[in-house]
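Appendix B, example 12.
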Amino acid sequence: MPELELQSIPEKEGLAAFDLSLWNSSSKDFGDNFIDDFSIDFLFFAGSDFVRVEFGNTENESYRIKNNQLLIGFSESGFMASVTVLGIGVEDIKIIKEYSSE
Protein backbone atom coordinates (compact mmCIF):
# COMPACT_ATOMS: atom_id res chain seq x y z
CA MET A 1 0.00 0.00 0.00
CA PRO A 2 1.47 3.41 -0.92
CA GLU A 3 2.35 5.83 1.83
CA LEU A 4 2.04 9.56 1.34
CA GLU A 5 2.13 12.91 3.00
CA LEU A 6 -0.89 15.16 2.65
CA GLN A 7 -0.56 17.72 -0.12
CA SER A 8 -0.83 21.29 1.08
CA ILE A 9 -4.04 22.79 -0.33
CA PRO A 10 -6.52 25.31 1.10
CA GLU A 11 -8.53 24.11 4.09
CA LYS A 12 -11.66 25.54 5.64
CA GLU A 13 -12.84 24.73 9.17
CA GLY A 14 -16.44 23.60 9.35
CA LEU A 15 -18.92 20.96 8.32
CA ALA A 16 -19.34 19.69 4.80
CA ALA A 17 -22.80 20.31 3.35
CA PHE A 18 -24.13 18.26 0.45
CA ASP A 19 -26.79 19.32 -2.06
CA LEU A 20 -29.63 16.82 -1.80
CA SER A 21 -31.91 18.59 -4.28
CA LEU A 22 -31.31 15.87 -6.89
CA TRP A 23 -32.62 13.17 -4.57
CA ASN A 24 -35.89 11.59 -5.57
CA SER A 25 -38.05 12.78 -2.67
CA SER A 26 -41.12 10.96 -4.02
CA SER A 27 -39.46 7.56 -3.72
CA LYS A 28 -40.47 5.37 -0.80
CA ASP A 29 -37.11 3.57 -0.92
CA PHE A 30 -34.34 5.67 0.63
CA GLY A 31 -31.75 3.62 -1.31
CA ASP A 32 -33.03 5.06 -4.60
CA ASN A 33 -31.23 8.29 -3.72
CA PHE A 34 -27.77 6.79 -4.13
CA ILE A 35 -25.66 5.93 -7.13
CA ASP A 36 -24.76 2.27 -6.75
CA ASP A 37 -21.86 2.22 -9.18
CA PHE A 38 -19.38 -0.29 -7.85
CA SER A 39 -17.08 0.11 -10.84
CA ILE A 40 -15.71 3.40 -9.48
CA ASP A 41 -12.05 3.09 -8.58
CA PHE A 42 -10.70 4.36 -5.30
CA LEU A 43 -7.27 4.47 -3.71
CA PHE A 44 -6.53 3.77 -0.05
CA PHE A 45 -3.46 5.25 1.61
CA ALA A 46 -2.01 5.05 5.09
CA GLY A 47 0.37 7.77 6.21
CA SER A 48 2.31 8.11 9.42
CA ASP A 49 -0.80 9.11 11.41
CA PHE A 50 -3.70 9.16 8.94
CA VAL A 51 -5.69 7.08 6.47
CA ARG A 52 -7.14 8.42 3.25
CA VAL A 53 -9.51 7.30 0.53
CA GLU A 54 -9.37 9.04 -2.86
CA PHE A 55 -12.22 8.54 -5.32
CA GLY A 56 -10.97 7.96 -8.85
CA ASN A 57 -14.11 9.17 -10.57
CA THR A 58 -13.65 12.82 -9.69
CA GLU A 59 -11.46 15.74 -10.58
CA ASN A 60 -8.41 16.58 -8.51
CA GLU A 61 -8.96 17.88 -5.02
CA SER A 62 -8.75 21.67 -4.83
CA TYR A 63 -9.80 22.35 -1.22
CA ARG A 64 -10.73 20.55 1.99
CA ILE A 65 -13.21 21.05 4.76
CA LYS A 66 -11.77 20.12 8.15
CA ASN A 67 -13.81 19.10 11.16
CA ASN A 68 -11.66 17.97 14.05
CA GLN A 69 -9.80 14.88 12.74
CA LEU A 70 -11.82 14.54 9.52
CA LEU A 71 -10.88 16.13 6.19
CA ILE A 72 -13.25 15.95 3.24
CA GLY A 73 -11.66 17.00 -0.04
CA PHE A 74 -13.60 18.56 -2.90
CA SER A 75 -12.88 19.30 -6.53
CA GLU A 76 -13.31 22.76 -8.03
CA SER A 77 -16.73 21.62 -9.24
CA GLY A 78 -17.75 20.73 -5.69
CA PHE A 79 -17.61 16.94 -6.03
CA MET A 80 -16.24 14.95 -3.09
CA ALA A 81 -12.77 13.75 -4.07
CA SER A 82 -11.37 12.30 -0.82
CA VAL A 83 -11.93 11.47 2.83
CA THR A 84 -9.03 11.59 5.30
CA VAL A 85 -9.03 10.64 8.98
CA LEU A 86 -6.19 12.21 10.99
CA GLY A 87 -4.69 11.37 14.36
CA ILE A 88 -4.50 7.61 14.05
CA GLY A 89 -2.02 5.99 16.45
CA VAL A 90 1.20 4.30 15.34
CA GLU A 91 0.05 0.83 16.41
CA ASP A 92 -3.26 1.22 14.56
CA ILE A 93 -1.43 2.37 11.42
CA LYS A 94 0.78 -0.75 11.61
CA ILE A 95 -2.32 -2.98 11.83
CA ILE A 96 -4.03 -1.16 8.96
CA LYS A 97 -0.93 -1.49 6.77
CA GLU A 98 -0.57 -5.17 7.64
CA TYR A 99 -4.15 -6.06 6.76
CA SER A 100 -4.44 -3.83 3.71
CA SER A 101 -1.35 -5.31 2.06
CA GLU A 102 -2.77 -8.86 2.01
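Strands lie at 11-13, 42-46, 50-55, 61-67, 70-75, 80-86. The mean pLDDT is 81.
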